[in-house]
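User: Last request for today: this protein with ketopantoate, please.
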Amino acid sequence: MRILVFGAGSLGSLIGGLLAATHDVTLVGREPHVSTVRDQGLEITGEIETTTYPDADTTVPDSAELAIVTVKSYDTGEAAQALRAADPDVVLSLQNGLGNEESLSEPLDGAVLAGTCTYGARLVEPGIVGCTGVGTVTLGARGGGDSAVAERTAGAFESADVDTTVAADMPRRLWEKLAINAGINAITALARVENGALAEGAAGDVAARAAAETARVARDSGVELPDERAIDRLEAVVETTAPNRSSMYQDLEAGQRTEIDAINGAVCERASEPVPINETLTALIETWERGRNLRS
Ligand SMILES: NC(=O)C1=CN([C@@H]2O[C@H](COP(=O)(O)OP(=O)(O)OC[C@H]3O[C@@H](n4cnc5c(N)ncnc54)[C@H](O)[C@@H]3O)[C@@H](O)[C@H]2O)C=CC1
Ligand SMILES: CC(C)(CO)C(=O)C(=O)O
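Assistant: Here's the final one, the structure of the complex with ketopantoate:
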């Protein structure tokens, strides 16, 4: 399959690098990473050790069967505009947060699939990406239901040994992942603690309330997600990722913009009643970003 990965940072390089073992892959990213990959191949280290040879460029090729989007959520609009030149048959977002599929489907004609990914990735240096956790890609029709396009796409991932599940309930799965990120990311970033610090105590209670608020907004949006399920999933991820620094904590440490708008901000935006925990977390992270001139 001719695949383009838009956003060859940590996750895009890992997934694109793995897919390049059996597919014709182009990584679209920034210098000096793309030149290094073109000249020397992409080295994957950590829990998976291999080198593959995707093509790499700073602009999109003129066609693609599948475009996988792995930019940060605040860059999705720009990615969608850039992808118009490739006119991909199918577009798949593996990003965190809510709203990415909507931003992609507006300017693009191809089918847009929703996805989540529990692989862990970190760009170590140009040409080298670390796999910090072997996980699963879950994908399916963005509105839910069966999808032959999703089955074909999953087949392409499986043929490259990327563990993949096709789900007929992607809206619920996106909200479930959102509840986990809404509970963990901003709190660990503000308190400068690893995920495991939320296993007990006051911060853990606040995280559970953020996840429960998210579940309530999901139900108001027509997605069946009980509070208990959202909190159970949150607690399970806190336990399995206990030593991790959340992506938002890492963004704050690096002085970079966060995905707050697509996580806690997305809960606030869709809420028809007050969601005080999500509102507070959003306001605090936004204030930090403004102080750093990271948002207008
Ligand atoms: N890193 C991880 O382990 C995981 C990340 N995610 C999600 O995946 C998404 C991406 O995360 P990361 O890979 O960590 O971020 P990242 O910042 O490492 O990668 C994004 C890359 O996109 C590139 N990019 C942005 N706009 C571009 C443009 N117009 N042209 C070319 N390149 C462009 C950036 O330069 C950057 O290298 C986020 O939504 C994140 O929450 C989800 C699961 C795991
Ligand atoms: C699941 C979790 C919270 C793992 O750290 C994550 O997705 C993130 O950090 O963005």
